[in-house]
Amino acid sequence: MRILVLGGTVFLSAAVAAEAVARGHEVTCAARGSSGEPPAGTSFVRVDRDDPDGLAPLAGREFDAVVDVARLPSQVRQAVAALGAGVRHWTFVSSISVYSDNSTPGQSPHTGPLHDPLSADADERDVENYGSAKVSCEQAVLAALGDRANVVRAGLIVGPGDQSDRFTYWPLRLARGGEVLAPGAPEEPVQVIDVRDLAAWIVRSAEIGVVGVFDATGPTVGRGEFLDRVAAGVGDADARIGAAAGGVAAMDPAEAGAKPNLTWVDQEFLAAQKVNPWAGPRSLPVWLPLPEYAGMLDHDVSATLAAGLAVRDLAQTARDTLVWARETGRDRADPADPADLHAGLTAAEEAEVLAAWHRR
Ligand SMILES: NC(=O)c1ccc[n+]([C@@H]2O[C@H](COP(=O)([O-])OP(=O)(O)OC[C@H]3O[C@@H](n4cnc5c(N)ncnc54)[C@H](OP(=O)(O)O)[C@@H]3O)[C@@H](O)[C@H]2O)c1
After folding, report:
1. To test ligand 1's pocket by mutation, which of 77, 97, 151, 157 has the most ligand atoms within 8 angstroms of CB?
2. 146 within a domain of the structure (yes/no)
3. Distance 181 CA to ligand 1 centre (A)
4. pLDDT by residue (tens digit) across 206-254?
5. Can you give the residue range of the structural domain that contains 119?
6. Would strands 65-68 and 89-95 be described as parallel, antiparallel, or unpaired?
7. 3-state secondary structure (DSSP) of residue 17
């Protein structure tokens, strides 16, 4: 197939383009090129979608399928108007941020209420408007493409290439060993999707014409199991990294490392210690306050799994993420110090909070 990836220079859209090349498709990536290089084997067309006529370089080109990751309704409307007519299948990558209710577990596209679409006078670039903007994007795609559209509401996307570090903190931290500060409680829900699994499903869905609206993330696991799987993936990571240098070595769960030494600290104590949830400095990522966010990482994805989304073992995601983090210097010179990450606690911050917890 001739596949156009609107994007392709970073993380998910790059993984989609790479997967499509690997599956033998003719792939064009269209972006400004400011976020990075498109994957090998693709052809690149420089476009700037901030320009109202920015897709002109694609005029006259025909594609069987398009994958778009845009966040701005103006860019999505421009794309469907310019390219929608002759396309057989259109994937729009949306987000579970379209849902207005973050507290109810088990929601799906059939049950979850959505944010209102963005009002005409709202700033579509304001990050506070991200969910509403994605709702407007979805509506533009569905209005123009109808039953040719696959709307993919991604959950937390993790794995090699993730610039947010929300997941990457955990492989780096568990590889370091010692007493690990674990937020909340082991049974609290966690739900993530490996970027490569999501990319593979997007490409396969384009091939076979999967259409509809899907929540695209992995099955829910407890945070205890989540951390155990991450630890299993990185437990003997140093021995594996040599093997993985020429590619990704096969993961044998039987070889997995020992159980991590976790100290669970409740959310009230963490809040009192000014530890932030989810992302950013002085945070514990993949942790969200309850009950407000009890549903955010606990969507019902049975329909998506039935539609072919296949998810790998989290241990493998963790190990590959660790390899990538070290290769790209995210752990910098001192692997014991994650201070250079965009998310998480530094080793000193973690030790300080643990000491306070033990003194309480
Ligand atoms: N990360 C998560 O956990 C998460 C969770 C839920 C949903 N999502 C969704 O998943 C998708 C992630 O996409 P992604 O990983 O590929 O990252 P992204 O940062 O959304 O990528 C945007 C792509 O569009 C291109 N682009 C941006 N501005 C442009 C412009 N003015 N003109 C032309 N191209 C432009 C960028 O390339 P250039 O900068 O090179 O132009 C890049 O290739 C997004 O739709 C996001 O909303 C992410």
Report:
1. 157
2. yes
3. 32
4. 999 999 999 999 999 999 999 999 999 998 554 444 444 433 343 444 4
5. 2-154
6. parallel
7. helix
